[in-house]
Amino acid sequence: MSSVAASSNVLKSEKVWMDGGLIKWQDANVHVMTHALHYGLGVFEGIRAYKTKDGRLAVFRLREHIRRLLDSAHICMLKINYSEDALVEACCSLLREQLHQFKDGAYLRPIAFMGDGAMGLGATNPTRVAITAWDWAAYLGEKGLKHGIRAKVSSFTRMHVNVNMVRGKITGQYVNSILAKREAVMAGYDEAVLLDISGFVAEASGENVFCVGRHGAVRTPSLSSPILRGITRDTVIRLLKDMGREVQEVSFTRDALYIAAEVFFTGTAAEVTPVVEVDNRTVGTGTPGDITKAVQDLYFRVVRGHEPKYADWLTYI
Predict the structure, then answer these.
(1) I need a labelling partner for 249 at 20 to 30 A (CA). Which of 24, 61, 208, 291 fits?
(2) Is 169 a catalytic residue?
(3) Residues of the chain predicted below pLDDT 70
(4) Do 278 and 259 touch, CB atoms closer than 8 A?
(5) pTM above 0.70?
C-alpha cells in the first residue's frame, strides 16, 4: 500500500483517544500555535495489532512500546500525566471501540507533544497526548516484503549522540530521516541507509539494519551507535538466537553491506523487509536469502499467535 493509500484509510477512522478519552476523528484538532508544531518537541510510537490464528486482534509488544514512549518523554523532559497502565488501556479501548474497522489488523500511533500557550524555546506548556489507529499495510510495500527492496546510502548523516538524544523517538528528529528518505526515493531507490559521523552503518530512515555474512553470522549495529533501540530489532535478535543463529552487535562499514550474503531491515511499520541491492550492488543472489526468509516467517507466525513460546508478547483485545 502506498503512503497515499494509507493516508486515505486514516481518514476513515471513527475515533481518536485524546487527553483522556475517546472523541470523534474530526474533533481531534490542535491549534496552529501548538508549540510542537513550531519547534518539534514531541514523542511518538508506532505499534501494530495483528489478526491472530483464532480470529482475535492482538497488539504486539504493546507494553514495551508504551514504556519507550514514556522514556522518550522523560529524555525530553516532557511531562506525561498518564501512567503506563493507563496508556496501555487507552490503546486497547481505542481498538475495542473500532473492532469492526480493524478486525484484520491496525497500526497504532500514540503521540505526546507540547501544546499551545507560551511560545519560545523555554516554554513549558501542558503536554497533549493522543492515540490514533489506521489500517497500514507493509510500509515498504507488499512486493518489497516478498521480493526485497533497493537501498541507497544517504548523503545525510545520522545525528551524533551529542547533537540529539538518539534513544528517544522524538518527532523533530525525524526531519533527518525525511530528508534521507526523499533523497533516496527521488534517486529511484526504496529506502535510505544513514551512516554515523565516523562512516559506520547506523540505521535506515525508519528501520534498523541487519546483514548476514557468508558464513551465516548476523550483524547489526550496537546500541553504542546512534540508533533507535528498535523493538522489532530486539524481537528479531531474540528470534535469531532461538533459531540457533549467532548475532553480533558490532560496527561495520557500508561496503560490508555490498558483500553481505543477505541484508534486511526491521521496524514496526516495515516488519522484516529484505534488501536485495545497496548502491547499485546486488546483495547476495539478488533475492531474499534463507536466513531473512526464515526469520521473517517466524516473525509473522509470532505476531499472529502461532508460536505459544512468545505468547507474552501479545496483548489480546
Answers:
(1) 61
(2) yes
(3) 1-12
(4) no
(5) yes
Spell out a b/e string for 55-66, using b for 16 or more CB atoms within 10 Å of the CB, else e: eebbbbbbbebb
How many CB atoms sit inside 10 A of residue 250's CB?
Answer: 14
Residue 189: the pLDDT is 98
pLDDT at residue 275, rounded to an integer: 98
Q: What is the pLDDT of residue 12?
A: 63
CA 105 to each of CA 24, 119, 267: distance values in angstroms, whole numbers, following the listed order: 20, 39, 16
Contact 2, 79 (CB under 8 A): no
Cell numbers standing for residue 273: 523487509
Q: Are 90 and 96 spatial neighbours (Cβ–Cβ below 8 Å)?
A: no
**Residue tagged active-site, from 169, 181, 241, 293:** 169
- Residue-level pLDDT at 69: 98
pLDDT number for residue 49: 97
Domains of the chain by range and CATH? 3-134 (3.30.470.10), 142-303 (3.20.10.10)
